[in-house]
Amino acid sequence: MGSKNKLKRFKENETFTNVVQPTREDVMAGFEYKGKWASFFGNNNPIVLELGCGKGEYTVGLAQINPEKNHIGIDIKGARFWRGAKTALEENLDNVAFLRSQIELVDYLFAEGEVSEIWITFPDPQIKYKRTKHRMTNPVFLERYKKILVPGGLVNLKTDSEYMHGYTLGLLQGLGHEIVYANHDVYKNEGAPSEVLKIQTFYENQYLEKGKSITYIQFRIN
């Protein structure tokens, strides 16, 4: 993507009513919507997060399927989620928001028990050992998610990475967390939730065309 196109998208994001772009300093000092996301949406419906939302395809797709829930896509790259934010506005989806911030600040962005469900879709598996701290299902991240989730809140991991799938399964089992459902190839085996099968991102379609398996885990953090 050219720099001019990026700048255009950054400027357009600033005009979108469904985009929130706090500075890191604002977040650390006391984010205005922490514990008050109901005021942003104008209702007390359950909040579903997509972490590392990219173009926002899953956030928008989930919002279309579940209009009774509020959906927030989080990513630091605003030029990417511009597409999802624009689509949501064009389709008058008032249960969608996009938040430009770092994932590691998630417990500064949401209050304890403010989130009902989390989706992590096709994250970078960070395979190298020295990158473990950036892996989105490592123990530190799981503790952050636990803080903001309601008791019994679900976390969903959908990925093309067998490594990420295996790492997460092993970690969850080792730490005693509840694995609700696990599947190493959702399109060949039965039982995956409809949201896993109905929504396919641009990159997911590319993976499928190459014959890659799509894995999925749904779990609760104890």
Task: Please tell me about this protein's structure.
This protein is an alpha/beta fold and 222 residues long. The chain has a single domain, classed as Vaccinia Virus protein VP39 (Rossmann fold), CATH 3.40.50.150. Helices cover 40% and strands 22% of the residues. It has 10 helices and 8 strands. It has helices at 3-15, 24-30, 37-41, 57-65, 78-90, 106-109, 139-148, 162-175, 194-198, 202-209, and strands spanning 19-20, 47-51, 70-75, 96-100, 115-121, 149-159, 178-183, 215-220. An 8-stranded mixed sheet has the order 1-4-3-2-5-6-8-7, sandwiched between helices. Helix 1 packs across helix 5 (78-90). GO terms for molecular function: tRNA (guanine(46)-N7)-methyltransferase activity. It catalyses: guanosine(46) in tRNA + S-adenosyl-L-methionine = N(7)-methylguanosine(46) in tRNA + S-adenosyl-L-homocysteine. This is tRNA (guanine-N(7)-)-methyltransferase. Substrate binds at residues 128, 160, 201-204.
Question: What are the salient characteristics of this protein?
Answer:
single chain; 222 residues; alpha/beta; Rossmann fold; 8-stranded mixed beta sheet; 8 strands; S-adenosyl-L-methionine; tRNA (guanine-N(7)-)-methyltransferase; tRNA processing; EC 2.1.1.33
Task: Summarize this structure briefly.
Its EC number is 2.1.1.33. This is tRNA (guanine-N(7)-)-methyltransferase. With 222 residues, the protein is α/β, with parallel strands linked by helices.
